[in-house]
Amino acid sequence: MLFKSRRNLVILLAIAVVAVAALLWTGPGQADHLQGSTYSTTPGGYGAWWQWMEKAGTPVQRWRKPGDKLTTLSSPATLLKINPRSILNFSPYDDGGSINPSESEWVAQGNRLVYLGRWAELTDAPFTQTVVTDQGPIRIQGRRRSPQQEGKILADKYGTLIWRQRQGKGEIIWVVPPFLAANAFQDEPANFALLQSLLTEGHNPLWVDEYLHGYKDAETLQQEGVESVWAYLQNTPLLLIFLQSLVVVTLLAIFGNWRFGQPQTPLAWPVTITKPISMPSPRSWKKAIAPNLWCNSCSKQKVPP
Description:
Elements: H1 6-34, H2 47-55, E1 61-63, E2 78-82, H3 101-108, E3 112-116, E4 121-122, E5 128-133, E6 136-141, E7 144-145, E8 152-156, E9 159-167, E10 170-175, H4 189-200, E11 206-209, H5 218-223, H6 229-234, H7 238-256, H8 282-289
Parallel strand pairs: 1-11, 2-3, 2-11, 3-10
Antiparallel strand pairs: 4-7, 5-6, 8-9, 9-10
């Protein structure tokens, strides 16, 4: 039986607890990691929009380096950052979004940044609403709106959804809804077209930040010292597969391999005989070996009684 001992049952329960904990720890992290990524086909990903842009003749290249490497891009350029997680933070309105100093400096040099997921206050707006734009009616999900009036691009009666901010020689386009053109809205062509128009205003090469979602090119991985197999597994969904495989192998080793039993002490030499050995009598010995005896003519020899 599988549970033939209390020890095996305890081991199995311990492994099950570890497996469930690993699943809970890994699953949400990976789901959050894919939100807003053009590599993702989940409802919160942007894979469908990325392919749509390519078919529309306005392809978007994937940026997989940190922000301080933006200066290596040919200028001017337009970078799209999609950060759904920023709206979960209770940040002050004038925090400038999740823009680091190197990115802000890069914009000031004459580049454009389109930022989806700008923090804004909760309002009385309905969670799902249709807003009319030059590209057609778009569907907005979310109750956050900004009171920003200067540089307003799109707004409704509850507040501003999209606005423009000058930054040196460049500009930042702030977009409050983080899922404006996510996979969940691929049946809303106006949503895709609106994001396209925001990006192509400057007629610059288009880039989307995938470093934000954990994707890094080979050069960045080498510079950051993430070349080991374990570090690679930690940054990819393969970690979950690795943990599940480890659990299965451990179970097979414990319950299918007798070598995991209690260790036994080998017999010492010479062996000490503690009980007398009774020797068989000659007559019983002959009867025992008689069936195996053969005569010279290859026939059985009958043993006399």
